[in-house]
Amino acid sequence: MRSWTLTRYIGARFLLGIITTLLVCSLLIFMIDFVELLRQAGKYGEVPARTLAAIAFLRLPAYTEFLFGFAILVGSIGALLFLNRKSELAVMRAGGMSVWQFLFPGILVAFLVGFLGVFVYNPMAAAGRANAEKKFAEAFGRDANLLKAQGGGSWLRQDGADGESVIGAVAASNRGLTLTGVMAFVYDREGHFVERVDAARADLKEGYWLMRNAWISRLGREPEKFDTYLLSTYLTPDRVQDALGTVFSVSVFELPGLIEVAEKAKLSTERLRVQYELLLSRPLLCIAMVLLAATVSLKSFRSGRIQTMVGSGMIGGFGFFLASEISRQIGVAGLAPAWAAVWLPVILLLLVSATVLLYQEDG
């Protein structure tokens, strides 16, 4: 009973520190996003402040989702410093508890926060982000141009029941479902060029692009005009926006299916795979943050240099986040497997932190 009471007490301290950090960061992010929406409202047209606040609130979970690791690091440092300052850690050590025993509640809390963050918070954040994008388009009267390239035109390589094709468009509307100024190069199942299609417009349907006023050019034949032309594709209307847009509007439960659809459509899946691995690795990342916090927070206040140790821990945390972002970009670029780009930095941090703790405790 005494052990369970102590476990709950330590766990509550960790949870309070993590929640407090998340709430403070969330408030700052909400204010910054709301101010940015006000700026855009003044630029593109008047939008009620209530609508802007709703958009910022719906987008907030997707933004704060990136802060789970940081919140657990700062919250764990705060919880351990609180226990240390009141000499409660010294009493626990005198009672025969090892560092792993009084860190176990924090590790358990961090794991549960990471687990719930992946399988509960992430789907909510994805749904909120998708709704925010719809409200933004309605409020500002603009759809997101998901296919538009920086150079003006857009090109997409895709696969379909009849073979591969490369489709380009001058512009896209209706959130990527309608293309204008379309040009497509069609290949058969063996990869041989079949025909070129020029159309004024193309609309994505279930399993095909419906092209209107299309000119078909084949080798050795005069161009022919058709009122409508069907170009097969494995893309579907409910997936094209996710496949070509932001991965942060896709929940962890939808990512495996989206990866399969993108593979069939011959789209790059690296960023989708990296995002999926990032979500799966979050519980382990949260545990690693607790161990990193412990390496800089267990020193007695009487020995001094606490500020230096905590500062070192924060610098180490930012260094890890920077290194993990570089590794993520390497994975997105396809230079390393997605699992390696995501899991290796986390495992390395976990091993280094555990090694430092063992050295501090046992010499």
Can you describe what's shown?
This protein has 363 residues and is α+β, with helices and mostly antiparallel strands. It has two domains: 2-142 and 272-362, no CATH class; 154-239, no CATH class. It contains eleven helices and six strands. A six-stranded antiparallel β-sheet has the order 1-2-3-4-5-6, with no helix packed on it. Strand 3 (178-187) and strand 4 (193-205) form a beta hairpin. Helix 1 (2-44) packs parallel to helix 5 (99-140), helix 3 (68-85) packs parallel to helix 9 and helix 10 (306-332) packs antiparallel against helix 11 (338-362). The longest helix is centred in the first third of the chain and has 43 residues, at 2-44. Residues 142-153 have low confidence and may be disordered.
In the sheet with the most strands, the strands line up as 1-2-3-4-5-6
Task: Tell me the radius of gyration.
Answer: 26 Å
Sheet with the most strands, sense and barrel status: 6 strands, antiparallel
Counted by DSSP, the helix tally is 11
Uncertain spans: 142-153
Distance between the termini: 32 Å
Counted up, domains total 2
Compressed to H and E, one letter per element, the order equals: HHHHHEEEEEEHHHHHH
